[in-house]
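Exercise (ungraded).
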Amino acid sequence: MANELQPVHRTPNPLQSKQWSDTFRRIAKYSVQRLVVLFITVVIGLYITVLIANQGGYVDQIRKAQIRESVGQMMAVNPEVQRLTQSQIIDIQQREIALEEERLGLHLPFALRSVMYLQQAITLNLGNAEYMTSDSGSRRVRNIILERLAPTLVLFLTANLILFGSAILIALFLSRRYGSFLDRAVVALTPTSAAPSWFYGMFLILLFSALWRMMPFGGMVAAPPPSGIHYYFSVAKHLVLPIAAIFLGAIFQSVYSWRTFFLIYSSEDYVEMAKAKGMTSSMIERRYVLKPTLPTIITSFALTLIYAWQGQIILETVFNWPGLGRLLYQAIGFNDIPIVVGSTVIFAYLLAITVFLLDIIYALVDPRVKVGNGGARA
Amino acid sequence: MNYFRARFNAISQYPSAIFGTSIILFLIIVAIYALVTIPRSEAIRLWRGGDEIWAESPRYAVPKWVNILPGVNLPVTQVLSTVTTPEYKTVSDFTSGIAESRVEIPFDFTANAFPKEVSIFAQGVSDRSRPYVSITWITPDGREIFLLDGTVGSNESYRLRTNRTLIRRLGNVNPEVGLLAKPGSVDIPLKGTYTLVVDGLLFEEESSFDVKLVVYGQAHGLAGTDHRRRDLSVALLYGTPIALAFGFLAAVGTTITTMMIAAIGVWFGGWIDGLIQRVTEVNLILPVLPLLIMVGTFYSRNIWVMLGILILLGIFSAGIKTYRAMFLPIKESPYIEAARGYGASSYRIVFLYMIPRVIPVLVPSFVLLIPSYVFLEATLALLGLGDPVLPTWGKVLSDAYSDGALFKGYYYWVLQPAGLLMLTGLGFAMLGFALDRIFNPRLRGL
């Protein structure tokens, strides 16, 4: 234990490489543990989703409708069938449907069926959409959803990285100038974060698109999409307003909470000591303020990101961004049940992945995991 | 009591708290006013009723108060009817199987802009032979413009916009422009007294007809109208109590249950605590909004059902961890030890000794939660999952959004509900942040 408590990478040390591999092993172990826990959590979440969706027998209906459709199609293209009488056709159709239903397990009790649906939900194997198609023409729920994943991730990641980075920088800056006009202005503006990002989005559209005609009203690229490098410029231009909306919706609140946090930590005795030693303020910030606060910052960032996913759904709707949120909105409009269920499933996955990635980063910075004298996080 | 008086004094020293409180009080007064003057059934009728309610309002009219602004002089809706003013109508004696009835409806027009539309409604009473009318429009400078003629059934409406021949005769401009423009112009209206003349022939002794002229204004009602001619003030007014009730109930429902569960978990410890922790961890990564959307799509969009689901999903929220951290030291404190010593029941300790200790900490977060739920209602409405019958702010926004109000330039339609939402958010947030500083002394210096 003794050598483990030594500073990890301050001075060259023959034990260093061993410690590094130790740290790596611990982080890997921790990550695997978290992955298992999160996967179980996702499964429970998806099971709840399946239960909600099937309470009214909706999933069953989807299956049965699909079976009927495929059997009907099969009969329609079969020349043998055309020659039979109407009652014979209906007879064969009924038999085929019954067979197919049995093959797919629709005759099983609900407890068993729900497990089957759960497995299909986990693999996003949700069959065909009722009305909607993907841009490439597919009607598979999985294809439709995966096609929308990339735009959502582009918007979400860019916006939240910008938000996170600038919030920390501004918070550090303000905590150094505690009590200044700027600092008080940010504190006074904190209540504006009560409004969600789509709300700011509407105002941004009103100002920049409707009144001043500087920015597009929505969408991801200009129509028709330009080719080559101009495509990316066009996407970048369409990204500006949604990102600005996400930024405005959360920036003051995050700056406020982190600034408060930094202030509490900068009044610790060891920071005073460092100041007395004559260290530069940037060194103090890096070594004595940021380092101990980092795990907490990451935890709160995780929570922010989880809420950000909810905001994303509606923001995409307001900005016509062709992502998952807009897909969900359209699916509600069409009452396309497989897509609604599928979107819920993919959002559950995205939340879990967000939490998992942050857990790994957490493990990298949390001394309890890194040095190994504590258990899993509380 | 002294405790609360001291707190109250502290609150009154924060200007933001006073400002926030006055906004909240204003909203509560509006909500009470709305509930008293518009009963629920009346609100639903006004919002969802048919033609008979909306016939006299224009589409896409801006609020009336716009006319207060300098340089703005938009026409307001004028409804002139022989039913309410019988003096407009003169009827001759019935001789040799025929009688003449003449209606002259004068109206003043003083606005700088054209009306939205002009429509004439007529109700004829007859047994077999319908009255025959010929309608003429007389401008202030004496020009007579023939509008239309025909027989009058029991319920006729002539929307001049749809009268192709009239539009052609006016030189291919919309009737409301052609009839009211200065001669030789298409963008300046002629001010003065116009007269609508209806010359009618009655073929039966008991026969009669009534005429109503509606000159739809560009400004209408306290809050303007939407694409279905509905008066937005109904939704904005009635939306206030709904928004406040939704926000308040959701915040109460989640914070109180969350706190109780955290207290129970801390007090009993062991597997109960563990179970609560695990459930919270699962619940934390459940996609709340998609689940709400699923419930809205599959079961019910009733606002109170949604509220219930929201509370259910919000019970095991991140708050449990915060409250748990607060309860842990309380559990070990001497007065709890003493209570245990004299044999107080677990129920008594949890609900009477532990929970009251954290209520001051709860108050600010509770106040801060309210606006986020008010906005959540608007979010759901924007997704098309608003309550199917009740008018709410969110539904106004949703209608405006789906009708492309911003693109078409109907800014009042978006700005009014958005402004009310923002006012609510600001009021509660300002009070909440002030309370946070008062009840959490650690933050007071910061």
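Further reading is listed at the end of the chapter. For now, observe: Chain B touches chain A through 50 residues (CB under 8 Å). The domain at 71-216 of chain B is CATH 2.60.120 (Jelly Rolls).
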